[in-house]
Amino acid sequence: MTRRQLTRLLPLAGLVILVALVAAACVAPGGTPAPGAPSPTPVPPLQPAEPGANPVDLLAWLFTPVFQILFIALVVIDQATGDIGIAIIVVTIILRTLLVPVFRKQIVSMRRTQLLQPELREIQRRYKGDRQRLSQAQMELYKERGVNPASGCLPMLIQLPLLMAVYVVITTGLTNPDPTAMLNVFGYQIPVECVNGLGTPAYDPYVPCLDTTVAWLGGLDVSKPQVLFPLPLIGGLSILALIAAFLQLIQSRMTMPPTDPSYSDQSSRTQRQLVLFLPLISIVYGGFLPAGLFIYWILTSLFAIVQQYLIVGWGSMFPIFGWTPGFAKDHTPRFPVAAPTLHTPSSPGGKPGAPVTPGQPTDRTAAQRAASAASTVRPRERGRQGRRGRKR
Q1: What does the domain layout of the chain look like in residue ranges?
Q2: How do residues 1-20 score in pLDDT, each as one tens digit?
Q3: Is this structure's pTM higher than 0.85?
Q4: Are strands 220-221 and 184-185 parallel, antiparallel or unpaired?
Q5: Angstrom distance (rounded) from CA 285 to CA 87
Q6: Strand (E) positions, 204-263?
């Protein structure tokens, strides 16, 4: 990985670390023990974080409403259905439905950027070795076509903190024996029936308030890792982690730009390597993260796959090992993305400088694409030659 690519990943890594610190600070004093670990003393009740002098306490206090909203939603749906697995599914569907406009904007921006690849390649060919002119020409192209490549970063900035919030809710909220303080909204106490006898003489402070097992998944405990059999280093192999990794691979392949044998740059090669590498992270963490988080992850990936299918179709999912199924050939998305408006010196069937109609750029020849890119690239200005360039 180059220094430039590593520099781009540093803010993302810093965000993950920051969210993890804030999430950890939301735990009540004394902390909640790991699921299944022996507790010599009763687990303290779950309390909202208080603002403190240090930045972590302040961020934890700001993060508490997000935790409380997700936790209350899970508790209310669990009390109504009597199944924490269904509660996680319903909350995930609600979250993804609310975020449909944000992720749609990301998918459309990504697709519009992919439609500019012929012009971008022509610019890279012209300004090869001149990074300043190359960057300037690319920005001019994006500005002229009305494409903002940075608009696809917002969903990632939303999804990472949300994923950490779901993790903390499952590991801290669902495993706490007395979460009543988190169920108080502006003085109104949300009623909850605890399986540990909270509020009765039979109260057991060592047992979680909510039943975290899912009967229709074979008695799966969503607050603990689902391990099929133990493995060294990674803790164990999880079926849910394998399903999540497989769905992430499909989602990533659908969003990748089509392969071009005649052209391949370092960024595209790195992107394709990450598509294969990132799903492996899910398999590695399957032996450590709770099963409920993978249920959320699986549903999130399924939702994203369906949304991408409706907008970009199968994308670069096929061919696989040279095979393309019949249903994927000549497939047209339900809501296709219109190509960015292009202004060429001589538009086919129109006057010079007229905008190309949506869908027309996809049918242009290589010469027409090159001409479109050439109209964006400013000609190199020739200045006066120095003494070394003169003939003697």
Answers
A1: 8-37+45-328
A2: 333 333 333 334 444 444 44
A3: no
A4: unpaired
A5: 23
A6: 213-214, 220-221
